[in-house]
UniProtKB/TrEMBL annotation:
EC number: 2.7.13.3
Keywords for the protein's UniProt record, in alphabetical order: ATP-binding, Hydrolase, Kinase, Nucleotide-binding, Phosphoprotein, Transferase, Two-component regulatory system
Catalysed reactions, semicolon-separated: ATP + protein L-histidine = ADP + protein N-phospho-L-histidine
UniProt keyword annotation of Phosphoprotein present: yes
InterPro entries linked to this entry: His_kinase_dom, HisK_dim/P_dom, HisK_dim/P_sf, PAS, PAS-like_dom_sf, PAS_fold
Protein's name according to its UniProt entry: histidine kinase
Pfam families on file: HisKA, PAS
Domain of life (superkingdom): Bacteria
Organism: Pseudomonas syringae pv. maculicola
Length: 258
């Protein structure tokens, strides 16, 4: 009777052990599948290398970043996936030998397509079944650098705009004074012919003021209109004659067809 009870107990224990082993194997299978699913859905590019720096696995984010297939590239040396400096390969080999993790900032990688990528990557040695594997987590920096550069340009443009506004204010104030003085002077001139000079001063002051307004930018659309080219030429002639004080004589010979 005792032997029968002992045999039944051993049988129950064996069954319990077998069930535990089955549950453990099933749990490991579910766990491995879950880990693979998590890695495949990460937005961070993840690459797994063996001790010889050959590809064991890369997730879809890494495939998109490097524009290669992880399945077709399995077993390839790292330099066949992308190229960097010789110092980088030396650092990876050292990480395998010493099991020492490291991080590199703003590294320049060249993909097989020839595209240059600016990335940050972290290297973590992992011990698996007596072998050392390297886990690479690659974070692209090109978009962040582009955003930073654009923000710096916007800040510089805003600073320049403020300087131009201040400069325009300092220019427009004396222009208003010059224009007003020319108008007062024109009223006191004894000869009507002398008003041509004050008109030149007034017109040039207005031209500079409009130029400053265009530099600042206007909220209104530009108003386009037909212009008589002879008026522009006559204004230039008046400026030249005023500056030369009669030393230069300009002869008009306009084309009547214009």
């Amino acid at each position: 009777m005792a032997l029968l009870l002992l045999a039944q107990a051993c049988q129950h224990q064996h069954c319990a052990t077998a069930m535990c082993q089955k549950r453990s194997i099933r749990f490991m299978t579910i766990s491995d599948a879950l880990h693979r699913l998590l890695l495949d859905n990460l937005t961070t590019a993840t690459i797994l290398l063996n001790a010889d720096l050959r590809l064991e696995y890369m997730n879809p984010a890494a495939e998109m970043l490097l524009a290669i297939s992880g399945q077709r590239s399995h077993g390839q040396f790292i330099s066949e996936l992308f190229t960097e400096s010789a110092e980088a390969l030396s650092s990876l080999r050292q990480a395998v030998e010493q099991a020492h993790p490291f991080t590199k900032r703003e590294a320049m990688l060249t993909a097989l397509t020839g595209q240059t990528l600016t990335v940050d990557y972290a290297v973590t040695p992992i011990l698996s079944k007596g072998d050392t594997l390297l886990l690479l987590e690659v974070h692209p920096r090109d978009r962040l650098l582009r955003i930073t550069k654009e923000e710096a340009q916007l800040s510089k443009q805003e600073t320049t705009k403020m300087l131009v506004r201040g400069l325009a204010h300092e220019i427009k104030n004396p222009l208003g004074g010059i224009r007003g003085a020319a108008q007062l002077l024109a009223r006191e001139l004894p000869e009507e012919s002398l008003k041509d000079y004050t008109n030149v001063i007034i017109e040039e002051a207005d031209r500079l003021r409009n130029l400053v307004d265009r530099m600042l930018g206007s909220n209104k659309l530009p108003s386009l209109a037909m212009t008589n080219v002879h008026e522009v030429l006559e204004r230039v002639c008046s400026l030249v004659e005023a500056e030369s004080r009669g030393c230069i004589t300009l002869v008009r010979d306009y084309d009547p067809s214009i």
